[in-house]
């Protein structure tokens, strides 16, 4: 286990980003189409093909997922991933036509100091293609891909991942792009809200503070009084090797959203667009009640860990007034 989303067999992840742009794309590719659903809790989401993932709709499985910066401009990243898959004959077959199925979601990073004057067309479709082409079993964490330009209320953020297994050996893993309006750390200190779920010192091993003060529970928002409804969003992908129906995958996404509440304070606000995709590769049958409940419990913990790692592994952007990284402040 590498503590990555790609601990699930048949899953690959690729990044493409632009340091001058201070934004990028992350592609999650499935070697075989995976049963997928989603859950949206934030008040300002930006998604691609989200209606398709409703359990009442026809298509059960997807070929890939596209996560991007760029706000609504970044929705085009899915087209780049789709193009890469189409060149390889991947997709949903309708007679001789083959359509790759690539849902996606975006976060807002347009005000992070990068040069967003890209001309007529935004670069996200090309970045999506490059991210798909780069997909592999190992991938970087922190300020890379869709997490390159991500921030929280008080620290630079980025992309994190984590994995785990249930008592019966069913695998579940998460990838998170952390661009929250709130904070992933407690007050002005080094402690992570997700500290109780940490495994092996994966985000510094600082635990919780000795006690909580009223100041630690004060609301901290990105942008302060100038915060707007479009400046944030945390995106997560949860993948399991369990056998799930589309409606069970949606239930897994719903339970996994609990991990957001364990790692971000405040969360699911009108200022966020929080989204969880849940996908199942279908290798191991589980009990539809107790088994799915346990899987959701472990998935929520894993999402919380992935979010904390997204902040812990981040590096600051090289722009004036850029937010510091956690390691800049606390790792010395």
List keywords for this structure.
two-stranded antiparallel ribbon; 24% strand; 332 residues; L-amino peptidase D-ALA esterase/amidase; 6 helices; 20% helix; single chain; 11 strands; alpha+beta
Can you describe what's shown?
By secondary structure, the chain is α+β, with helices and mostly antiparallel strands. It has one domain: 4-Layer Sandwich (L-amino peptidase D-ALA esterase/amidase). It has six helices and eleven strands. The strands form two sheets. Strands 1, 2, 3, 4, 7, 8, 9, 10 and 11 form a nine-stranded mixed beta sheet that branches. A two-stranded antiparallel ribbon has the order 5-6. α3 crosses α5. The radius of gyration is 18 Å and the shape is globular. The protein starts with 10 loop residues before the first strand and ends with a helix.
Write down how many β-strands occur, each being a DSSP E stretch of 2 or more residues.
11
- Decide which structural class fits the backbone: alpha+beta
Shape label: globular
| Major pleated sheet | 9 strands, mixed
* Number of individual domains: 1
Helical residue percent band = 10-25%
Percentage beta strand: 15-25%
The total of helices stands at 6
Report the C-alpha radius of gyration, rounded.
Answer: 18 Å
Distance between the termini: 28 Å
Question: What integer is the average pLDDT?
Answer: 95
Named CATH topology? L-amino peptidase D-ALA esterase/amidase
**Reported CATH architecture:** 4-Layer Sandwich
């Amino acid at each position: 286990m590498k503590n990555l989303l790609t601990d699930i067999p048949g899953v690959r992840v690729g990044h493409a980003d632009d340091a001058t742009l201070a934004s990028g794309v992350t592609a999650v590719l499935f070697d075989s189409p995976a049963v997928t659903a989603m859950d949206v809790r934030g008040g300002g989401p930006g998604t691609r093909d989200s209606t398709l993932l409703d359990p009442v709709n026809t298509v059960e499985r997807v070929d890939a997922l596209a996560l991007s910066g760029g706000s609504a401009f970044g929705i085009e990243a899915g087209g780049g991933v789709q193009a890469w898959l189409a060149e390889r004959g991947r997709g949903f077959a309708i007679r001789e036509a083959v359509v790759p199925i690539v849902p996606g979601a975006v976060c807002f990073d347009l005000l992070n100091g990068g040069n967003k004057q890209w001309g007529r067309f935004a670069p996200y479709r090309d970045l999506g293609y490059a991210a798909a082409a780069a997909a592999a079993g190992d991938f970087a964490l922190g300020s890379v891909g869709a997490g390159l330009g991500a921030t929280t209320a008080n620290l630079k953020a980025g992309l994190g991942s984590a994995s785990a297994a249930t008592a019966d050996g069913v695998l579940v893993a998460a990838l998170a792009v952390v661009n929250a309006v709130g904070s992933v750390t407690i007050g002005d200190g080094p402690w992570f809200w997700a500290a109780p779920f940490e495994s092996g010192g994966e985000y510094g091993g600082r635990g919780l503070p000795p006690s909580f003060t009223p100041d630690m529970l004060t609301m901290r928002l990105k942008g302060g009084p100038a915060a707007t409804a479009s400046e944030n969003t945390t995106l997560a992908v949860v993948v399991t090797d369990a056998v799930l129906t589309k409606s069970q995958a949606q239930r897994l996404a719903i339970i996994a959203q609990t991990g957001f509440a364990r790692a971000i304070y405040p969360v699911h606000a009108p200022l966020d667009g929080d989204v969880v995709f849940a996908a199942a590769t279908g290798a191991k049958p589980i009990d539809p009640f107790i088994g799915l409940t346990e899987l959701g419990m472990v998935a929520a913990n894993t999402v919380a860990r992935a979010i904390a790692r997204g902040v812990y592994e981040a590096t600051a952007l090289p722009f004036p007034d850029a937010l510091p990284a956690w390691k800049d402040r606390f790792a010395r």
